[in-house]
Each structure stands twice: as C-alpha cells, then as structure tokens.
Design brief:
By secondary structure, the chain is of the alpha+beta class. The protein is built from two helices and five strands; from the N terminus they run ααβββββ. The chain has a five-stranded mixed barrel. It starts with a helix and ends in a 5-residue tail after the last strand.
Length: 134
C-alpha cells in the first residue's frame, strides 16, 4: 500500500511539473486576436490629398494637404516626380508620425509649421488636377 501511495504521489508531482512547464512556455498577454488587431492598426493604408512639390533636399517630395499639414512622400513603386505641381491623392502606409498626430481631437494644431506631419510610403497615386489650388 505504501508503494502505491508513493507511485501515485510521484505521478501527481510529475504531472504538475509538466503542466507548469507548458504554461511557462506560453508568452503572457499575446493572444492571436490581440496580435492581429495590433498588426491591422500598423498597416492600415492612409490617403492624403494635396499639392505635390519638391522637397528641400534632392530626391525629396512633399505633399501639402488642404489643412496645411505637410507629408514627406517616398515610394519604390510609384514615380512621384512626374506629379510635381499637380494636386494628387496619395495612398500608402504611414512610416513615421509626429507628436502632432498624437494630440486629441479638438485641440488646435500649428498648421503654419514647416515640420513634416508624417512620412508616407506611397503605393498608389491618383491625379486630382494638373494644377495646385491655393
């Protein structure tokens, strides 16, 4: 009888150790749905419409939207230089956001600032007009 109790105790201890080892291997707070939600937020495309102009440095292109926000545009697949001086709608992913984008709605932003509002990696361009409206 003592031998049976000893074997039962050893089995229970072994089963507990295996169970705890499996729990430790799972990273905390990383559920598949939470990870998918976070990934969806980071790759959500953004469309910005405005006037395209040459930037201050060679090869740099900027888009100034109607609200005064300036975006630095980059693209490996779209030739942005062909649209300089045109009003366009650029769609892509935001690769850098400034502190201005983190402000809550309703707060006044400094639209006259020359600092870029963000960087946009452009995947698609649609021409709105051959000239920019001021």
């Amino acid at each position: 009888m003592k031998k049976f109790m000893f074997v039962s105790f050893a089995f229970a201890l072994l089963a507990s150790a295996v169970s705890l080892a499996q729990d430790a291997a799972t990273p905390p707070n990383t559920t598949p749905s939470a990870q998918a939600t976070q990934d969806a937020k980071t790759v959500k495309p953004k469309t910005v419409t405005g006037c395209l102009a040459k930037g201050s440095q060679p090869g740099e292109v900027t888009l100034t939207a109607a609200d005064g926000k300036t975006w630095d545009l980059r693209s490996d697949s779209v030739k942005l230089e062909e649209h300089i001086g045109h009003q366009i709608s650029a769609t892509g992913t935001v690769t850098h956001e400034t502190k201005a984008q983190e402000k809550k709605e309703g707060q006044v932003e400094n639209a006259a600032s020359k600092e870029a509002y963000g960087d946009l990696n452009v995947t698609e361009v649609k021409m709105v007009s051959e000239t920019c409206t001021k």
